[in-house]
Amino acid sequence: MKLFRYKTEEGNKTGVSINDAHYDVSSHISEYDRDFFDADGIAKLKEIVANGGLSKLDEPLDFDAPLYRPEKIICIGLNYSKHAAESGMEPPKEPVVFFKSPSSLTGPFDNIIIPKNSTKTDWEVELAVIIGKKANYVSEEEAMDYVAGYAVHNDVSEREFQLERGGQWVKGKSCDSFAPLGPYLVTKDEVADPHNLNLWLKLNGKKVQDGNTSDFIFNIPQVISHLSQFMSLMPGDVISTGTPEGVGLGFKPPVYLKPGDEVELGIEGLGTAKQKVVAHS
Fold first, then answer.
1. Start and end of every Fumarylacetoacetase-like C-terminal domain (predicted)?
2. Which residues in the chain show pLDDT less than 70?
3. Which of 55, 68, 85, 111 has its Cβ near the most Cβ atoms within 10 Å?
């Protein structure tokens, strides 16, 4: 199944996509949040779909992020061999971990807002993994049991804030609008091999990122197991697994986003997203 949330005049509602048709499930499920996953919500949603009688939605829809208020957005840096090379860095010996503030989460078609005093706002298409149940000290062998599904994520980054201002990367990752997610949370049963997915990003119609998750340095079970040694992964948490080569920082000279730009990105089987870039006002 493909889970989504969409905007209406009455507020956000929940939906499910089946065979490319969109259906409302808000009378059954109020939100896709921690409580939903805690209560084995995906299994219950499957029963709701099997029973039929859902209202088909008119197109087009105004998609929001497919999750509501995740507790954590955890990111893995330098997790593609080619991206590490373009960054001039040695491949890490264990996952590079940083956070994005959950307040940076936005919908897949919302604007990217260049923050005040920014001159180096950059793009990063990433595969996001959504955790389905609490994970604590899990092994690599059992790690995939804790995955609810996957989504397209643009890990928008301000490189000066991230790399030149001292401290941790979180400052350059957490500005408002810096985590467009979706349009769908695609349940793991629909993704045959998350370690062989094409992912791409276009800037103003020109493809600048074109990679495959087979280039991961650390695969999904390794990442989940590693993180679970240091923190509890909670239902609805987002793990963004890194970006392939082709980010603006890697260009010579570097290229950064400016007002009026348009970013389009997608991952095989997970959908596409598009964001316009605007200045902070």
1. 72-278
2. none
3. 68
